[in-house]
Amino acid sequence: MSGNRDCDTIFALSSGSPPAGVAVIRLSGPDAGTALMALFGRLPEPRLASYGVIRAGGRDIDRGLVLWFPAPKSFTGEDCAELQLHGGRAVVAAALTALAQMPGLRLAEPGEFTRRAFFNSKLDLTEVEGLADLIAAETESQRRQALRQAAGSGRATFEGWRSRLIRCRALIEAELDFPDEEDVPGSVSDEVWLEARSLAEDMRGQLAVSSAAERLRNGLEVVLMGRPNAGKSSLLNALARREAAIVTAEAGTTRDLIEMHLDLAGYPVTVVDTAGMREASGVVEREGIRRARQRGAAADLVVWLSAVDDPAPADPGIGAEVWTVATKCDLPAVDVAGAVPARLSISVASGDGLSAFEAELARFAADRFAGAEDAVVTRVRHAQGVGEAIAHIEAAVAGEGRGVELRAEDLRRAADALGRITGRIDVEDLLDVVFGEFCIGK
Ligand SMILES: Nc1nc2c(ncn2[C@@H]2O[C@H](COP(=O)(O)OP(=O)(O)OP(=O)(O)O)[C@@H](O)[C@H]2O)c(=O)[nH]1
Ligand SMILES: [Mg+2]
What we know:
Elements lengths: L8 E5 L6 E9 L3 H9 L9 E7 L2 E11 L10 E8 L1 H12 L4 E3 L4 H8 L5 H12 L3 H11 L2 H25 L10 H21 L1 H9 L1 E7 L5 H9 L17 E7 L2 E7 L9 H16 L2 E7 L14 E6 L16 E2 L8 H15 L11 H19 L5 H19 L5 H11 L4
Parallel strand pairs: 1-6, 7-9, 7-10, 10-11, 11-12
Antiparallel strand pairs: 1-2, 2-5, 3-4, 4-5, 8-9
Helix pairs in contact: 4-5, 6-7, 6-13, 6-14, 7-12, 12-13
Bound molecules: guanosine-5'-triphosphate (GTP) and magnesium ion.
Guanosine-5'-triphosphate binds next to helix 9.
């Protein structure tokens, strides 16, 4: 093995685990071409699929497709090759063994292809994150969000903001360095601070939808709560369309939190079943109730179930947003003075109101996720970087009494905060803008 692992040629099974119809093995690095020659007998036309026998050690391994992507036009920016073989365990094992025996080749570490793509500037950090989200996406809205991010929507926005900042700073520094230069008008700084203010405004706009975007990545959380026997577990099972939770006529059946991940009209929603609220005597049930309250307090929505034959209002402050839903509406209702009117009536036994309930939840999700798919600040990491940038810009804008050097320094810090989001901090940019815009030194 070579001393520098980044110079190794790496390979890995990139498709799912065998057995499968087809297995895709990827190679990247300086020896990818040599390896492909050894296996296929020749280098195929770049970026065109070629069909033939794949051989190693004088024996046929399989027939399949091979692809050759010479640098730099490849995913990683290095020489890359791809083998599409039959996805049998023994086929994949024989091919991987043959590759491992070739000099300069080794098995890739997790994420190593993408890491190389990043270091070769094929992707920035936000695109790398988008790619990871795309692979993890479980619902349509998550897929659409991840695809935009992977395709560079975040990169374009963050880099756009950063170059506006760099321009502001360049204008200010030019004024500092060349106060008498005719090319630099005196009122430049007014324009700069206006621009800086509007930039911070744009960033705040993106931050405003960032929590929806972050939530879209993780899913919305809906917690089912209510008295024992209110029908919480029955509703969870109906939503999941399987017997996920135990349902019995005994009050206090559920103790642990039971989570179900649902796809509601393309939106990711986690529904949590909980222990029924009451003055419990047992240690286990008390702990269950404590966990239920804790989960409800942090949820996007608490659905408080109140059975028509045993109605009970929700405790005040049980969740940030609480819907009361009447359950068991197939049974005769018992009137209770002061009961909170229900938003909806359902019966798991008859199925009444269930699709209306699902539709209400989907509407709630659509509302909470509004703007999330188009958002570029999709992670806490981005939000922190943008927040930091805004703080530095605000310090620069407000610091009229301070020296211009210090205010320019604030702008540099703001630009660096954005540069860290995309993974590129490059001081050369500053010089380019100064010389490009003012023709100084001509
Ligand atoms: N008639 C009728 N019975 C229901 C309905 N939903 C649930 N039940 C019955 O009510 C009882 C309690 O239901 P569960 O779903 O276990 O109630 P729970 O709220 O999870 O109760 P705990 O886990 O004990 O807090 C069971 O016997 C269910 O069959 C309904 O819509 N109509
Ligand atoms: Mg239950």
